[in-house]
Amino acid sequence: FLLIALGSALYFQRLQAGGRAGFPAPDFVLSDLQGRAHRLSEFRGKVVFLNVWATWCPPCRMEMPSMEQLHRRLKGKEFVMLAVSEDEDGSQSVQSFINKIGVTFPVLIDPDGVVPNRYGVTGYPETFVIDREGRVIQHTIGPEDWNSKSSYRYFSALLEGVSETTQAAGEDT
What we know:
The protein is an alpha+beta fold. It contains six helices and eight strands; from the N terminus they run αββββαβαβαββαα.
């Protein structure tokens, strides 16, 4: 019974995730680990990878190295990666984890839960891909291997201006 309940919960969570794309990305202002403020709307015109996570979340910690690898591959190509930490103690627990992994993209601190409330986050990690016009075009619940070939192709196509429809058609051939 427990396995069926867990499987059903995961299915409905993933089903819900598919319906949470195609909306304007809610703006926010959060500080990074160095205290610099970042406003999401300042990145309009770029593809934004917005990941909501916490250091106490094992799947979040698991996917962070692949995020760093994707960031390094796409750095300088109108691509922005932001990791929003939901740790309640702020930067204290986040800084040591980030240093250990060698993260080079901005890690924002959100101890008050501003981003989860605005984006309807149901758990961690969750990732939102925001297009150049500021619309959420993809929402992923759970950890991913962001350095996979398919992820790299997806983001490269977005950066080259290839539509999702064209990209999907090309994958079938």
